[in-house]
# Entry
Amino acid sequence: MNGLLQQDVNKETFTINLGPQHPATHGVLRVKLVMDGEYIVEAEPVLGYIHRMHEKMGENRTWAKFLPNCGRMDYLSAMSYNHGYVAAVERAAAIEVPERAEYLRVITVEMNRISSHLLWFGAFVLDLGGFTPLLYAFDDRELILDLLESVTGSRLTYCYFRFGGVYNDIDDAFIAGTREFIKRQRKRMPMYDALVTKNIILIKRLKEIGHISKDMAIRYGATGPVARGSGINYDVRKNEPYSVYPEFDFDVPVYEEGDSMARYMVRMDEIEQSMRIIEQALDKLPEGEIKPKKAIKLVKPEKGDYYHAVEAARGSFGVRLVSDGKNQAYRLKLRSPTYSNLSLYGEATKGMLLPDALALMGSLDLVIPEIDR
Amino acid sequence: MVQQPILDHLYVAAFFLGGLLMAVGPFIIAHLFSPRGTRNITNKTQQAIECGVEPIGDAWIRFGIVYYLYALMFLAFDVDVLFLFPVALAYDTTFAIRDFVEIVIFVGILSLAIIYAWIKGVFKWETKSYNPR
Amino acid sequence: MLLAKIKEALSSLYENIQETEETPDADAAAAVEAEDTAVASAAEEVQAEETAPEQEESKPEEVAEPEEPAPPPGPKETDYKAKGYHLDVDLPPEKLPEAAEILLREDFFIESITGVDWIDDEQLEAVYDFNHFDELCRVVLRTRTDRENPAIPTISHIYQGANWHERETHDFFGIKFIDHPNLEPLLLPEDADFHPLLKDFKA
Amino acid sequence: MGNEVVQPPIIHFDTLDKILGLGRANSLWPMTFGLACCAIEMMATGAARFDLARFGAEVFRPSPRQCDVMIVAGTISKKMEPAVKTLYDQMPEPKWVIAMGNCAISGGPFVFEGQYGIVEGADKFLPVDVYIPGCPPRPEALIEGILELEEKVTGHRRWPRVEAK
# Structure
């Protein structure tokens, strides 16, 4: 605190639960906080309140039957999880994917990333106390959900990818709708910038709050916008190119400060980058097949284990599958980015004020079923 | 003919009763109209709300003096406003300057406490560093 | 370049394995083997000056021949396109903390720890994934321990991120991580004593 | 244990119950209690386009003491079950429960032989009033569920029912 009121040591600490049912945790995460007045002495996240046994289901279902599960882990960027799982199985079983299908995958993944960042933006500012941006962000997000629903059939938990391609082709209405959405969103972003980003209250709440250093990101394995906010230029689409990403020119926003404001700015800039990718993908969309002639139901990768990582909205989502040649996974491990991003919460919030710890938790962009799997 | 003072007393009593009724009324209505008791499974109805899990430890602990200071400052200014009411009533338009100066002096002396606390840095909430326990 | 550097650094772990397990008698190793270790020790000097890790100095310069009927134990490079990772390192459990220190020194970050239950050959395997932020190079450390009382030394004092991964692997497979700070269930209820991802788990 | 009848209020007669029922039905305050994917659809229902405010149910109260209806939106895992029971206890009467989504109705896509983690359905331990199928159910389905609950509270349905043409 300061010179005047020296902290007397033998004051008791107070333990409260930022419990499973709490508006700021956006799900069922529980954090056991040992508090000394307003200051956090020790914060320990407790997980498992929404553990839904995805990895156990991976072992007792065939490869194709596990597809619906992918959309239900991180339901905000479900398309990237579809992409991660399907690409891992394609790498294991050496399945070819036609060019047009790869483009459709990139378009839908990037649109899903924008809708995930928009929802994060609304929910994050809601945590800090501002209610109206949530309504604006959801309004834009509904447009994306309409477009994606017209192609995939569902609003949230997509199951759009198949082994070797995608389920449905896009029509001109989708392309026109997407271009219209991008034009409208480019006009909305300056408004969000003026309404929220330059708002002195938000700046005061986020600047120099929740510092995550590069070394901490290495020791905890934080990836995605959390790492890019601390000056680490790591984006799986650039560092580990997969699908047709090398053909698009987009840049990866990286901020050096490592505080909550930096992570906020990274995600706001990424919305613009995703729109650039979608536009280029729509311009260069090739004609051709979108899925193999005969639908692949029997997938038999040879023995051994395979790993594939994709850039989900929250970081590098990796799928490690161990196959023993059968039509079923022997072991399916899903490396979820928020699991590692959250593991640094205990060290990052030592000695912090409680409201700042909530700002830090919001800036980590948590989706709890992805952590608990 | 009811003398003037009794009438005034009646006014005060009426206001007092009205205030009391406004305060206690909702409790009475709620008590009368709401069902008594609630369905429960593990009868934790009376338990303190802690996001659905058991509260850990006791809430009645000793904590930093600073939070008490805030209460003190609020109390000082609350009473300060209380004293300004009569001044506002008896604000004499002819000698307005005199009354205004009195108010400024009165409020000024009280806000000295705030200035002292400000200089001493009570309002700065930096991050503290705890040696890991 | 990073791949070669880390390969050499990790292969240094294998020298003292042979030393501790058997008396280091200089065998007539295959020519390529000698040349390989020569390159290894040369690179080691370069690497020693560069990062000057005190741990490298402690290793004796004279390198015992790692003699193994199977291909020499040591980091094996795998084809990234087919498998998804660059280096596959099979280690005995007690070598793990050392390997983790080497990887942390090269700024590798920990991606995940996966448990695998090989029930046919009575073993539990823990697969550690490491990757690098600046240059793509995924290193996979594998250790096996027997299924009866599986125990692997913890690396959570080196990589704090591994703390949760190890607790989760303990939840699902029952692998005891030696001197892990708090090895309670993470994803399962606090009083859970079953390990669901074992092949012989009955609900 | 959860469905014993509660003692009626001190003053209650038929028309008063009707009036109070009308008031309660049109201001159902749900609890912010999103578990999983259905919670996002619940947020979308509360947001601008589907606008739960038209039916008086847009005030999502965090504390159980101030809410009337608990919308169980998502999967209830075995670790979460005691917390759900505690929250249900701490809600004052009159209270209702809406089971939103297949997970809350019957465990949904996570029920398989030998599953160890979830409770298969909220009605295993909660008296559920309205079931909303879907995975996740669309916001319109949640609004229909709220209207269904309003019909249950007041006895008649004020809003037109949607007929498939």
Summary: The interface with chain B takes residues 1-4, 6-12, 16, 20, 63-65, 82-95, 125-127 of chain D (CB under 8 Å). The two ends of chain D are 44 Å apart (CA to CA).
